[in-house]
Design a protein that fits this description.
Elements lengths: L2 H20 L3 H10 L2 H7 L1 H4 L4 H17 L1
Helix pairs in contact: 1-2, 1-5
């Protein structure tokens, strides 16, 4: 599987996981991910994220997201 395919696969998994864990519809998660360029962040940090589990990556994303909201 190419790296680009792996990134897309991770992005999709994290959208679904965020929707499930935060109890928010996928459409709203998708809108939030677009608003804060989370998919771009995942792609940029893939080198680090691919060594972590999805829950650890989601924790990182929610922390970074909460910092962005308050800045």
């Amino acid at each position: 599987m190419s790296e680009k395919s792996q990134i897309i696969f991770m992005q999709v998994r994290l959208i679904r996981l965020a929707a499930e864990e935060l109890d928010i519809p996928i459409q709203e998660i998708n809108a939030l991910f677009k608003k804060y360029d989370v998919l771009g962040f995942i792609e940029e940090c893939f080198g680090l994220f691919h060594m972590e589990g999805d829950y650890a990556v989601l924790e990182c994303l929610t922390f970074v997201g909460s910092v962005q909201i308050w800045v």
